Amino acid sequence: MSPFSDELNVKRIELLSELAPQAGVIALLANPSNAAVERTIRDAQEAAQVKGVQLQILKASTESEIDAAFVTFVQLHDGALLVTADPFFNSRREQLVALAARYAAPAIYEFREFAAGGGLISYGPSLASMYRQAGAYAGRILAGAKPADLPVQQPTTFELVVNLNTARALGLTVPPSILARADEVIE
Length: 187
Prior knowledge:
Oligomer: single chain
CATH architecture: 3-Layer(aba) Sandwich
Strand order of the largest sheet: 2-1-3-4-5-6-7
Distance between the termini: 33 Å
Largest sheet: 7 strands, mixed
Strand content: 15-25%
């Protein structure tokens, strides 16, 4: 199962730029311990250049480094935050959402669970759909299929979720173009 998450950072930067057009800087929160971090940073830099925004890299691989990254983020003034896809960040969802609220950071995340937990916006694969795909694969293997004969699966469902309560708390007006594309709007 390939989550196809980092490839969506280009779209996340576009969404964040549309949602927070005043943000001249987008901070990319990345885990330096992740093997794909250099590719993630490179792709995000290209996307930011296309959108005409400055990209600031913030690295964190521990809880205290996440706290320090938000302190650095505040010093950027008029910025927005893209939290990269990473299992460590997924496990620190509550901390990330709370810090984004405390520091009034317009932030975009990978999974809908972030927006459902109080984050501003998320765009990424549906965890529920990926779990169903994994379950179907497990069923095929249990029925005798050889794992090596099965193709790598990619997500087929992507979700755009917007939390209007968080947008109001941040003083942001969500553009109708984003609301029209949203799979879920939390009020």
